[in-house]
């Protein structure tokens, strides 16, 4: 804080935007920066866009130029950014009862913005109480916010404590049904997936990776 305030360009910009250099203002500035780091579409996104059209031929849209254009764009997207057959099978498992992942990893970011206890760290003597620390509600004991599956291939290790090293091990964890405890979410149960199913799920998650923008840094301007 001291260092920021001592730099004329920051002092001036903070004054202009927030009124003063405060730790909350620093938080807001960082959040504003993070909000513009938007990932470009992944093979998963191109595949979702294509799905409504997949059973049609170009001829089916001959009489509707607008739809024909949408069809052509979706087709070009999926051809340039294909999802492997394994990833497509993984999508089925992820989105259906078989894997039940979308019970929590759902919506545009494949995350429900809610908190669940999936058992991670519950085998410790003093497990992290998670959301309970904030709400004091026993239902939130050991519950953590569902993370996004977008770009998850780039962000190992996994879970709030980094206790799971790879996506393969994450899937093994779910397959076993997590670690039993009285706080375990009802949505977590042994899945009994085959080895192929598990590999397919991992491939699907990898297909949720899109190009992230490069952040260029340069010298601070002399004054803002
Ligand atoms: C009951 C809700 C729920 C279900 C069902 C669920 N997840 Fe999760 N998932 C979570 C929560 C909550 C976390 C974070 C747990 C933690 O940090 O302790 C998580 C973490 C993960 C992570 C780690 C992400 C990271 O950035 O660390 C992956 C990968 C993942 N889940 C994939 C899956 C897959 C694949 C399935 C289906 C087989 C699935 N999840 C089913 C709620 C769920």
Report on this structure:
With 224 residues, the chain is mainly α. It folds into two domains: 2-35, no CATH class; 83-206, Cytochrome Bc1 Complex, Chain D, domain 2 (Orthogonal Bundle). It is built from nine helices and two strands, in the order ααααααβαβαα. Strands 1-2 form a two-stranded antiparallel ribbon. The longest helix has 16 residues, at 65-80. 21% of the residues are buried. The model has no long low-confidence stretch (mean pLDDT 94). The site of heme C has 26 residues, from α8 and α9.
The radius of gyration computed from the alpha-carbon positions, rounded to a whole number of angstroms, is 22 Å
Specify the number of helices: 9
Biggest pleated sheet = 2 strands, antiparallel
Q: Mean of residue pLDDT?
A: 94
- From the 3D structure, determine the CATH topology of the largest domain: Cytochrome Bc1 Complex, Chain D, domain 2
Distance between the termini: 18 Å
Work out the helicity level. Answer: 25-40%
Bound molecules: heme C
Number of strands: 2
Strand content: under 5%
Number of separate domains: 2
- CATH architecture of the largest domain, by name, is Orthogonal Bundle
Output the CATH homologous superfamily of the largest domain.
Cytochrome c-like domain
CATH class descriptor name of the largest domain? Mainly Alpha
Shape descriptor reads flat
Structural class: mainly alpha
Low-confidence stretches: none
Strand order within the widest beta sheet: 1-2
Helices and strands, in N-to-C order? HHHHHHEHEHH
């Amino acid at each position: 804080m001291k260092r920021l305030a001592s730099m004329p360009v920051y002092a001036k910009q903070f004054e202009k935007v927030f009124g003063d250099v405060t730790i909350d203002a620093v938080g807001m500035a960082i959040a504003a920066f993070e909000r513009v780091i938007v990932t470009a579409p992944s093979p998963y996104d191109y595949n979702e866009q294509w799905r409504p059209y997949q059973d049609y031929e170009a001829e089916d849209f001959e009489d509707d130029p607008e739809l024909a254009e949408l069809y052509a764009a979706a087709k070009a997207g999926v051809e340039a950014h294909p999802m492997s057959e394994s990833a497509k099978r993984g999508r089925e498992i992820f989105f259906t009862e078989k894997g039940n992942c979308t019970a929590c990893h759902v919506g545009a970011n494949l995350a429900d913005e809610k908190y669940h206890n999936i058992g991670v760290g519950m085998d410790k003597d003093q497990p992290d109480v998670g959301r309970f620390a904030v709400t004091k509600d026993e239902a939130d004991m050991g519950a953590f916010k569902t993370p996004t599956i977008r770009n998850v291939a780039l962000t190992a290790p996994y879970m709030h404590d980094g206790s799971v090293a790879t996506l393969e091990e994450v899937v093994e964890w779910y397959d076993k049904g997590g670690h039993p405890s009285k706080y375990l979410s009802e949505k977590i149960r042994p899945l009994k997936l085959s080895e192929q199913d598990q590999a397919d799920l991992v491939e699907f998650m990898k297909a949720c990776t899109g190009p992230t923008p490069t952040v260029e840094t340069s010298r601070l301007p002399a004054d803002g």
